[in-house]
Amino acid sequence: MFGQGRDSFHEAQKVHPEEYATTSSAINEEGEEWNPRLHLVTHAATLDQMEELDEVKETYETLTEEFGLHSHAAIHALSYVLSELIFDMMSQDEEYDRDSHLQELEELTNPNSDLYQMVVEPREDGDPPAHPKT
Prior knowledge:
By secondary structure, this protein is mainly alpha-helical.
């Protein structure tokens, strides 16, 4: 599922501040603690998925071409789905569920879904996501 790893990590670093790779704790604009290094890892894993799973690549293309998301915002949307999937797998001690993953990807491109309205709709302006400084 995450084949290229290191190359994808370096690709993810290109669109983020350099210090993301060395800092594991920062405060975002809402005053919440978050992990910049984990953010890079999810970016890299999403890039790997785009290479390995046609459905992830197709969802990326739909988000950027049909919905006009900036490419970086589309990666964030896909990373959100991946992060939620991993969290559910770990917290419920379950194996990867491809059908569930594909269903979430469908929801991500359905303007009537809660997932779309929460993750995609706020980025429909086409601007790239803002990243807090570490």
